Here is the input.
Amino acid sequence: LFDALADQAAVAIERTQLAADVDRAKLAAEADRLRSALLTSISHDLKTPLAAILGAAGTLKEFAPALPDEARVELLSTVIDESERLNRFIANLLDMTRIESGAMEPNVGLHYVGDIVGTALSRAKKIIGLRKTEVAIPPDLPMLRADPVLFEQVLFNLLDNAAKYAPEGSLVRIRAWTDAGWVVLHVMDEGPGIPAEDLERVFDTFYRVRKGDQVTAGTGLGLSISRGFIEAMGGTITAERRADRSGAIFTIRMPIPKETPNPEYS
Ligand code: ADP
Here is the structure.
């Protein structure tokens, strides 16, 4: 009996080891696949703006004297815009590594959300040409403990997405209010929205919902970085679907600081 049991145990152990080997092999294959998808995606995101820069700069070098002023300005704008895109992408990659290594140290102070929204909006209007916006932020909203640079970057990412995925000229709304101990902020658009099964996954690194989204410039990094930033400041960020019509809603919740921050806003 002992021998039989020992044999059975040996077989069981061997099976477990085999299963573990198979699991390990599967994991390694999945890691390889992810690594190569990551490299393809990063190379693509670096190559696209670089190709545009090289094209515009090459044309300028060859034909500048013969070109009308407007054409020269347009080519130069392409060089600047695409360089900015590259710059943002590289900054995003660096932010991502800082978040993942836990080296993110927000520089927090007390700030009025309306001011941060104002800065993010004017940047979005200038850089991405965001047009139709509606902002409703009460002037007596409590101040928040936040890093204004990080918070503005999150809002900019959300506005950038709204501009990218919603039809041109549709309305983007930003609202803020208080709810128990929280300041709640909504960024809402009139685009296709996010399918229910993807509402959580859009915050994963490099996750993009639609095949078609690959044609819009993007990296699948914006939302995961945004979540990293907001969580580093003690808040939460989630995505929902609009109930009244199609469109995405992003909700940021930030705790209201315990101390009375500023009599003007408290
Ligand atoms: P990126 O926009 O660079 O792809 P993000 O992390 O910002 O990366 O977004 C991840 C994905 O979530 C997008 O690729 C898109 O599929 C989806 N998404 C984000 N914002 C919106 C939005 N406002 N409307 C519809 N889909 C969105």
